[in-house]
Design goal:
Helix content: 55-70%
Distance between the termini: 35 Å
Keywords: Amino-acid transport, Membrane, Mitochondrion, Transmembrane, Transmembrane helix, Transport
Radius of gyration: 22 Å
Family: Belongs to the sideroflexin family.
Shape: globular
InterPro entries: Mtc
Oligomer: single chain
GO molecular function: monoatomic ion transmembrane transporter activity
Structural class: mainly alpha
Protein name: Sidoreflexin
């Protein structure tokens, strides 16, 4: 039986279905409840298997499960064990609870303030946990990013609420959380990862060999992360307000049951590469570095870790 390549995905990530299966597999929320010892054992097995020194009798299913745990809990660049709440496997349960709360508690200023504070604290933790490890961020930069994102979210939320209360139908107030989340993501992520923009991130050829550092790749990666974060929360935060408005009109008593409302919305929320020719044009220094490192043999495409 052929050996498994533990450094490559089990699914074909060149197709949408393959990428979907890969990320669903590695972000399985059930891995959140496993102990650190269990996760470190998985990492040890992966390291042993990579060297061909795994314990006798190790099965392919055990290796695949270890790959799953390793992918879900350890940073892809540094190999360090990530904090519990910042892992991608915690995104579904954590995001469900916070988004459900934001959609349910939006009517008063204290509710908006508390929900946005908790949401931006969670986002800052996730962004820090999944940053590009080759571009370290100082405590000062983290603080500035956190305060800026929280402030921008509050300004957007309170500004939209004030404006829509006076000039728009009541249902528009239900979109206050989405407006705040979208604005905060546009501020938080670039600030949290500003070192990557200033210094560039490592780019590799198709074999994983580092060929240089690119600021253009950093900008592209961060832009993709911002758009994906907004897109991921859009279905629930844009469609649920319409549904909940109809439910409250049909059952007026439901509007007074805030805890039930928050629980229902939480559950419903849960249901829902760069070419080198581009580098030569926009980053001539990087292109020259690639030529030098590869003795004139410049790879057609380069790859980078955009972060999550």
């Amino acid at each position: 039986m052929s050996r498994i390549d533990v450094d490559k995905p089990l699914y074909d990530v060149n197709t949408f279905v393959g990428r979907f299966r890969h990320f669903a597999w590695m972000s399985d929320p059930r891995t959140c409840i496993l102990s650190d010892d269990k996760l470190r054992q998985a990492k040890t097995l992966i390291e042993q298997y990579r060297k061909g020194q795994e314990p006798p009798g190790t099965t392919s299913d055990q290796v695949k499960y270890a790959m799953k745990l390793y992918s879900s809990a350890f940073h892809p660049d540094s190999g360090e064990l990530q904090n519990f709440a910042g892992r991608m496997s915690f995104q579904m349960p954590g995001g469900m609870i916070i988004t459900g709360a934001m959609l349910a508690f939006y009517r008063t200023v204290p509710e908006i303030f508390l929900c946005q504070f908790v949401n931006q604290s969670f986002n800052a933790l996730v962004n820090y946990t999944n940053r590009n490890a080759n571009s370290p961020t100082s405590v000062t930069q983290l603080g500035v990013a956190y305060v800026s994102a929280t402030s921008s979210a509050l300004v957007a939320a309170l500004g939209c609420k004030s404006y829509w209360t006076k000039r728009a139908p009541p249902i528009f107030q239900r979109y206050v959380p989405f407006a705040a989340v979208a604005v905060a993501n546009c501020v938080n992520i670039p600030l949290m990862r500003q070192n990557e923009i200033a210094k560039g991130i490592e780019v590799t050829d198709e074999n994983g060999n580092v060929v240089g550092r690119s600021r253009l790749a950093a900008v592209k990666g961060i832009s993709q992360v911002v758009m994906s974060r907004i897109t991921m929360c859009a279905p629930g935060m844009l469609l649920l307000p319409i549904l909940m408005e109809k439910i409250e009109k049909a059952y007026p008593a439901y509007k007074r049951m805030k805890l039930l409302d928050a629980s229902v919305q939480t559950c419903m929320v849960g249901c829902f590469s760069l070419k080198t020719s581009t580098m030569k044009r926009f980053e001539p220094t990087l292109y020259e570095e690639m030529v030098e490192r590869n003795k004139g043999k410049v790879p057609e495409k380069i790859y980078f870790n955009k972060g999550l």
